[in-house]
Amino acid sequence: MLTITDLHAGYGRSEVLVGASLEVKAGTVVALIGANGAGKTTAMRAISGTIRPTRGEVRLAGARVDGLGAARIAGLGLAHSPEGRKVFGPLSTEDNLLLGAYSWLPHFFGYRNKAKPALEHVYELFPRLAERRAQLAGTLSGGEQQMLAIGRALMARPKIMLLDEPSMGLAPVIVQEVFRTIHRLKAEGMTMLLVEQFASAALGVADHVYVMERGRVAVSGTPDELRRDPRVLAAYLGAAPVVAPAAP
Amino acid sequence: MPLSVVVQITVSGALMGLVYALIAYGFQLTYATSKSLNFGQGELVMISAFVSLTLLGTGLPYVVVVPLGILFGAGLGVLVERAAVRLALQQKSEGWILLTIIVGLFLVSFAENVWGRDDRPFPTPIPADPIHLLGVDVTWLEISVAVGVLTIMALVEVFKRRTLLGKAFEAVSADRDAAELMGISATRTVTLSYALSGAVAAVAAILVSPITTVGPTMAAGLVLKAFSVAVVAGLESGFGVVLVGLVLGALEGLASLYIGSGWRETPGLVLLILALAVRPTGLFGKPIIRKV
Amino acid sequence: MLKRLILVRGAEIALFVVLAVVPLAVPSPYALGLLTLLAIYGIVLIGLDVTVGYLGQVNLAQAAMLGLGAYVAGIATTRYGVGIPLALVLSGAFCTAVGALLALPALRLEGPQFALATLSFTALCATALNELEWLTNGAQGLQITRPLLLGHTLDARDFFWLCIAVLAVVWVAMRNLMSSQWGRAFEALRDSAIATDAMGVGTYRHKVAGFAFGSGLGGAAGALYAYNFGYLQPQTFVYELTVILLLGVVLGGRKSLWGAVVGATLVALLPNLLSSHLLFRAFSGIAFVLALVAGVRGLVRRKPNDQNAFRALAPIVATFALAAGSFLASNIEDWRKAIFALMLFSVVVGLPEGLMGFASSALARLFRVAPPELPPPASLDVVLPAQVSDGSVLLRLDGLSRHFGGVRAVDGIDLTVKTGTIHGLIGPNGSGKSTLVNVVSGLYARSGGTLRLRGAPLRGGSLMAAAKAGVARTFQNLQLFGGMTALENVMVALRGAWRVPLPLVLLGLGRREERRGQAAGLALLELVGLRGEARTRAADLTYGAQRFLEIARALARRPALLILDEPAAGLAQPDILRQLEIIRRIQQRGITMVLIEHHMDVVSELCQTVTVLDHGKVIAEGPTEQIKRDPKVITAYLGAAEPDAAPPAAVTGAS
After folding, report:
1. What distance in Å separates the CA atoms of residue C507 and residue C501, rounded to the nearest whole number?
2. Residues with Cβ within 8 Å of residue C37, at least 6 apart in sequence
3. Predicted pLDDT at C389
4. Which residues of chain B neighbour A146 with C-beta distances below 8 Å?
5. Residue B161 vs residues A99, B244, C267, C269, C351: alpha-carbon distances, Å
C-alpha cells in the first residue's frame, strides 16, 4: 500500500531524514519507533506531503506521490493524524469531523446527510465525542482531542492512516483507550503506519516494526524479533530514561 | 438644532455606515483564510463601478449588468491574489501589504486615464425620491443600499456557518497545514476568498455608485472607513462589523453636523487609533497566544 | 586588504565633499535646486528607513510627518519670526512627540494594523491641515517668509549648504545609532521578538522609539522643505507622496544610508523623468532589459518552484508594461501613479534588497575588506561574577497551573529550586515541562497558583519582568538572532555597565563602552568555546555551536536562574560532552539552573534533584538515582503495564 524508498527531507538547511526506506502492506499495522530527533515525525510529514522530500520516492497504492503536496495526497486516500493532534480549535467537534471527509463530501450543502453514516461510525467508536459534538475543539481535553484527530482521519475513508505519536501527553489510562481503538481499527482491516514513543504499546499492535535512528531505518523486523534485539534498546532507549530494574 | 434634523442626519449616516460594513466584509473574507487583506480594496470597488457603468452604457439592461459586474469583481479579486498576495503568503511574509497598495495605485491611474478624472452619475432603475418612514426621510436608494448590504451579509454568514467550504475557510486560517491534510488546498481556498471579496466589492460598487457618483477617487475615503470598521470590530467577527459600521456612520453624520463637513472623516480615524490603543485585536476579536 | 574603516569613511566623506562642491563647479540654479531637494529627501528617507528598513514595517505616515514639520516651521517663522535652528528643533521635536503618540497604540500590533493606523494618521493630518484654516490657511496655502539663520538671510547656495550640513549630521547620528546597542536591538527584534524580550531588551519600547525617531527626522526635513519652497499646501502631503517615499526607500535599498541617498536622488529626479518622453523611454527600456536579464538568470539558477518563477517573471511583465507605455502613451504625466506602481512592483518583487543591497553584495565580492580588530576578552569574573550558593530557596512554585482551553498543560505544581543547584525537569512529551518553564520565564501568564523568585512574587505573563528579575533561558526550538554574528547575539543581551545613554550614542561617544561590551561578549563566547566564531553569522553556525551560543547569550544576562530547555536536543555525542563541561563551569560560578532534558545520561551527570512531570502534575521528585528506579516514573515513560505490553525482558541498566 505504501512504500518509501531512500527518502530525504529536512527543514531549511538541516536534513533530518537521510535515506529512509520502509513498506506498509495493505491491511497491516506498521510501527515506526526511535529516539527523539531520530526523524520519525519528519518522515511522516514527508510522506503526507506537509514537507517536500528532497530526494527519494513515496508510492501510495503503486502510484508516486512524493512532491504532490498534502492536499492532493490526502485526496488520494492518505489520512494523517499529525503530531500534536492539530485539531481546528475554533470549530466544533462535529465540524472537525466533517472537514475530515472534505475530499469526498459536497462542499456547499447536503454534506451532513451524506456524512451521516461515517459520522455515526466514528461516534460509535468514540462515544465521548458524540457527547461533545457541539463543543469547540479547542476546549476538549488532550485525550478527547486525540480521539477527534483519529476520528477526523477516519472520516476520510482512507486507504491508509498515519498516526503520529497518538499517546503524546496523555495519561496512561487514556493511552490504553487510544490503543484499544487502534486495535479495533486493525481488526476492521485498516492499514496503518504508527509512530510512537510508547514503544511497548506500539510493539503490541504492530505486524512489523521499523526502528529509526539518526534519519534512517536502523532495524526492521517483527515485534518479537525486536523485543529480543539489544540494538533496539540502544537505539530506542538511548535518549529516553534508562529504566533499571535488576537484570533477570 | 431641531431634533428631527439630528435624527435624520444620524439615520442617513448610519445607512452609509452599512456600506463601510459591506466593504469591511470584503476584508474579513480574505483575512478569514490567509490573515491578509487587500489595501487596494477601494480601487476594486471603483473599477467595478466603472466597468458596470460602461456595460450599462452599451445598452445592456441593469439586471444583466449586475451579475456581470459581480463576476468581473470576482475576477479582479483573483488577479489581486495572484499578483500581489500569493508570493508573500508563500514566503510567509507580510509583503502583501505593500503589494496590494501598489496594485491599488495602479488601478487608480488606469481608471483616471481610461475613464477620465470626472465623476459620473450611475444610472439606476431605483427612484431617488425620498419617502417618509417613521418620521425620517429616506430615499429608495438608501433603502436599497441597506437591503443589499444586509442581504450580502446574510449570504456571507450563511456561507461561513452553513457550508462546508465556509468551515474550510476557517480551518485554513486556524491551521493551514492541518487543513491541507484534510485535502483542502490552502492556495485555492485563499484564491477563492479573494474572488468572493472582489465580488462583494462589486456589489458595494453597484449599490453605492448612484449615491456617490462614479469617479477615480470615489472609494478612497470609503475604504479608510471600512478599514476602521474592520479593525475596530475585529477582523474575525461578523455581526460586530455591522454594529460598528452603523455607529461609525451615525458618528460621522453628527460630526459633520456639529463640527463641520470637512471633519467628516475624523471620527473613523480617531476611532481606529483609539481602538488600537485599547483593544488591538478589535472589540469583538479574539486574543492571540504565542507559541515557542 | 583594505581597512574597512578607511574605505567606508572615505566614501562617505567623498560623497559629501562632492555634494558640497558641485554648486561651485556647476553654476546652474536648476541643478542647485535639484541637489537641495536631494538633500531634503535624503533626510526624509533616512527617517523612513528606520521603520521600513530596520523595523520591517510598512509606514504610511512619513508624508504626514513631512507636512507637519513643514507647517510647524512655516507657521513659527511666518507668525513668530523664529529662526532656522529653533525651527528645525521645533519641527523635529513636534514630530518625534506625535510619532511617539501614534506609535504607542499603533505598534501594539504589527503588520496590517500598523500600516492602517499610519494610513489613517496621514488622512487625519491632511484633514487637519485643511480644516484648521485659522492656523494653516487651509487649502489656500501658506506663504512662508524667508527665515534667518542666526540673523543672516541665506541665498540659494547657502541654504543648500545648510541642507547638506543637516544631512551630514543626520547621517552620522544614524550611523552611530545603528552600530550601537540600538541597531542590534532593532535587528534582534526582527529575528525573534520573543527572544528579544526574554533577554530583557524591550521589543515594544524599541519599536516605538524607532518610529518616533524616524518621524522626528521627517519633521526636521519638513522644516527645510518649507523654506525651500516658500509655500505650503495641505494637498501635497497625501497618500501619493507617501508611496513615492516608499518607492525611494525600497528602490534605494533598505537598512542603508547610501540607499536613502540613492532613493532620494530618484525621488528628486522623478518629475524630470516624467516630463521628458525621450528620457522616460530610455529609462524604461533599460529597466526592461535589466529585468529580463535578472529574470532569466533567476530562472536558471534557482529551484523551479512557484515562488521563484513569479519573482523572475513578474518584474519582466511590469517593466515591459512601463516600456510599452512609454511608447504608446501620449502624455506620460497623466500616468504618473501607474508608473510609480509598476516601478515599485518591479523592485519589491524582483530586487527586494534594492539597488544598494545589490551593489554592496557585488562590492563585497570584489573587495575583501578586513573588519576592525576585536579587543581581548574581558575577565570572566567581571562579566559573570560568582554568586552566593547557600542552598536557600531561589524559586518557589505553589499550585502553579496553566490551562489552554480545556487542556490542563500544567495542573497544580509545587516546586522548589535551591540556589547553586542544577534541578532537572523530566517527563514524557506533552507532560507540561515546556509550558511550566514558559510560565516561569514569563511567556505565558499563569492560570492559578503562585510563583516566587527569592521570596518576591514574579509578575506573570511578562518576559521583560522575568528577565529583569533575573531569569534567563534557552529555547527548545532555537530562537537565535540569525542575521547577526555570534558576538552580536551575546551583546544584545548584555546587562550591566555596557549601556550608553542615547544622546551620547548619537554623538558617537559610545565607542569605548562598545569595546568593553565586545570584550565582555568575547569572554562569554570563550566560556562556551565559540571565541573563534565571534564574527560568524548565527544562522551559519553548526547546530551544536548554535546551542552553545544560546547558552552564552542567556549568561550575558547575569541571571540568578538559568533555564535550559532541552539544550542537548539533537546533539551528537561529542557535543553533548562539551555541553556537560560548559554547564559544570556555569555551576561553578554559583548560577542556579533548571534543566529540561530527555537524555538521561545528561540528567544523571548534572542534576542533584530531579522533578518528574506527567500529564501536568508532579509524579516524583528526588535525587536522580532514586527517580530512575521509581515505578511511577517507569510507568509514565513506558506506559501502563499490560500483559502483552510488558517491558522487554532484555532491558538492562545500560546507559
Report:
1. 10
2. C228, C268
3. 79
4. none
5. 13, 21, 49, 54, 42
Length reported for chain B: 292
Number of Cβ within 10 Å of residue A133's Cβ equals 14
3 state SS for B227-268: HHHHHHHCCCCCHHHHHHHHHHHHHHHHHHHHCCHHHHHHHH
Give the 3-state secondary structure of residue B217.
coil
Cell of C497: 555597565
- Residue C70, C-alpha cell as written in the block: 513643514
- Which of C87, C98, C86, C71 lies closest to C226 in space, CA to CA? C71
Q: Which amino acid is at B175?
A: D
Across the strands, what pairs with B9? Answer: none
Which segments of chain A are extended strands (E)?
A: 2-11, 14-24, 29-34, 55-60, 63-64, 78-81, 160-164, 191-195, 208-213, 216-221
The answer on pLDDT for B288 being more than 80 is no
The ipTM assigned to this model is 0.89
The number of angstroms, rounded, from the C-alpha of C332 to the middle of its chain's C-alpha atoms is: 39
Q: Estimate the share of chain B in helix, then strand, then coil, as percent rounded to the nearest 5.
A: 75, 5, 20
**Is the Cβ of B156 closer than 8 Å to some Cβ of chain A?**
no
CA–CA separation, B78 vs C453, rounded Å?
55
Report d(CA A110, CA B164) in Å as an integer.
Answer: 9
In B, which residues are within 8 Å of C116 by CB distance? 227, 231, 272
B162 interfacial to chain A (CB closer than 8 Å): yes
Shortest CA distance from C102: residue in chain B:
B273
What secondary structure letter does DSSP report for C51? Answer: I
B169 contacts B189 by C-beta, under 8 angstroms: yes
Distances (CA, A) of A35 to A32, C501, C637: 10, 50, 12
Query: Cβ C406–A167 below 8 Å, yes or no?
Result: no
State the Rg of chain B over Cα: 19
C33 close to C224: Cβ distance less than 8 angstroms: no
What is the amino acid identity at position A144? E
Which pTM was predicted?
A: 0.85
Which residues does C91 contact at the CB level (< 8 Å), separation at least 6?
C68, C69, C70, C72, C73, C219, C220, C222, C223
CA C23-C11-C218 angle, to 5 degrees, is: 65
- CA B158 to CA C633: how far, in whole Å? 51
Strands A63-64 and A55-60, bridge-based pairing: antiparallel
Helix (H, G, I), strand (E, B) or coil at C596: strand
Q: What is the dihedral of CA A213, A217, A219, A223, to 10 degrees?
A: 100
Query: CA-CA distance, C299 to C302, in Å (whole number)?
Result: 6
B175 alpha carbon, distance to own chain's centre: 26
Strand ranges across the sheet with C561-565: C471-473, C561-565, C592-596, C422-426, C609-614, C617-622
CA A138 to chain C, closest CA, distance in angstroms equals 6
Where are the extended beta strands (E) located within C243-377?
Answer: 369-370
Q: Which residues of A touch B178 (CB under 8 A)?
A: 82, 86-88
Please check whether residue B134 touches A, CB under 8 A: no
- pLDDT mean by block of 10 residues, chain C; 655 residues: 72 88 83 91 96 91 95 91 90 95 83 85 89 84 83 84 93 90 90 90 91 96 93 88 91 92 91 86 90 87 80 92 88 88 91 86 76 84 82 90 83 92 84 90 90 88 91 91 92 77 80 87 92 90 91 93 88 85 92 86 87 88 84 64 34 31
CA atoms within 13 A on the CB side of C427: 27
Amino acid at B65: V
Residues C162 and C154: beta-carbon distance below 8 Å: yes
